[in-house]
Amino acid sequence: MAATNELHSVDVAVIGAGMSGLAVADGLIRAGFSVRVLEARDRIGGRLQGSPLDRGASWHWPGEHRVRALAQRCGVETFEQYRLGDALIDDISGVHRYPGNPIDVPAYRVVGGTFALAAALAAQVPPGTIHLGRPVQDISSDLHIASGDHRWRAHHVVIALPPALAVHAIALPRELPAGLIDVAARTPVWMGDSVKVVAHFSAPFWRHDGLAGAAMSRRGPLTEVHDMSGPDGEPAALFGFARAASMHADIETDILAQLIRMFGPQASQPIDILIQDWSREEWTTPPVAAGLPDYAMFGHPLYQQPALDGRLHWSSTETAGSYAGHIEGALAAAERTVASIVSTTARGALSQ
Ligand SMILES: Cc1cc2nc3c(=O)[nH]c(=O)nc-3n(C[C@H](O)[C@H](O)[C@H](O)COP(=O)(O)OP(=O)(O)OC[C@H]3O[C@@H](n4cnc5c(N)ncnc54)[C@H](O)[C@@H]3O)c2cc1C
């Protein structure tokens, strides 16, 4: 770990140890670069959190080959999302049962939760690569990076956090084109305004009632619900999304009442109800995020090429040219960043 005030030189400094930053670090270390990952939180994973119960991302979908390839390479098992049974619609006229679950689409889950993917990637990089509790506050024009009293100097810097958060929380080099800063400031944070609620039960009782665990609700507070149990129903869980604006001190009572209304009295005794309000996560969602509606900013052409003479790279899921917003997008952005740095740099040349 860098000692206070000591300046450490490194080929590439990656800011953020979410899926994208970890994948960049892994790819570049394999290519022979020296890499440090500076992470603000005291944990890795970013929007992948919780094990085995996901508080962030849960699914990947058919065609998302990067996630599948990563899971296979790291020995992380996946399984199909449970979809069997009927779905529920909850509205002012009551709770209605819809045969055949028209709500859930085919999707895959990760055994142990999606955090297992981040943990597996982190295990691939040499000890000492990832520095936790290091919120970057400043990137200078000559790529000196500051986090409190800690300093690094890098040949390449990778911004692997939501662009709007980077613009809000980090003093960026003043040479960056105004157009790029404007695009970054206007790029929404995917799911940054969402609240994920996980209800953990001792058994997936809804399955025994012929229910898929899938529901849409116009009454709330959960607007949609899905089965989030592990393989073979263990651990048993339902999850739902709520609006950040609907949160209040006693929201758990309202959530429980809704689950009982929809799934019956067996829903009255969860082991736990986890409420994760991502809009209040300082290292995911800047205060301005609620006013960022323009998803056309995702994968903007300005993110596809590095700035500052090819030395400053954008690499969160929001910057991906494909699958932006998804885990697959975080990996796609990382792939582009690694290719860009490797293609412009002779192996090992930076360290000399
Ligand atoms: C509730 C929810 C449900 C979701 N569901 C799905 C799903 O089912 N399927 C799917 O594919 N995707 C889903 N997503 C999206 C998915 O989680 C993201 O696409 C992916 O995790 C983004 O990875 P990332 O590395 O780009 O960004 P992040 O995970 O946000 O990582 C950024 C990292 O940067 C760190 N950081 C921030 N600021 C600083 C700073 N100043 N200095 C240092 N470090 C900093 C953060 O702490 C974080 O670790 C969901 C997201 C949420 C919130």
Offer a quick outline of the entry.
This protein is of the alpha/beta class and 352 residues long.
How many distinct helices? 8
The ligands found in this model are: flavin-adenine dinucleotide
Strand pairing plus helix content: what structural class? alpha/beta
Question: What is the gyration radius calculated from CA atoms?
Answer: 21 Å
| Anisotropy-based shape | elongated
Order of helices and strands: EHEHEEEEHEEEEHHEHEEEHEEH
The number of domains: 2
CATH homologous superfamily caption of the largest domain:
FAD/NAD(P)-binding domain
The helix content is: 10-25%
Kindly provide the name of the CATH class of the largest domain: Alpha Beta
Q: How would you describe the overall organization of this protein?
A:
The chain is α/β, with parallel strands linked by helices and 352 residues long. It folds into two domains: 7-52 and 116-189 and 283-351, FAD/NAD(P)-binding domain (3-Layer(bba) Sandwich), CATH 3.50.50.60; 83-110 and 193-280, Alpha-Beta Complex (Polyamine Oxidase, Chain A, domain 2), CATH 3.90.660.10. The chain has helices at 19-30, 65-74, 115-124, 163-169, 178-186, 205-208, 251-263, 327-344; strands spanning 7-15, 35-38, 78-80, 86-91, 94-98, 108-110, 130-131, 138-139, 144-147, 150-159, 194-201, 211-217, 222-227, 236-243, 272-277, 312-314. The two termini are 21 Å apart. Flavin-adenine dinucleotide binds at residues 15-21, 38-41, 46-48, 56-60, 135-136, 160-162, 165, 169-170, 190-191, 194, 196, 278, 283-284, 316-317, 325-330.
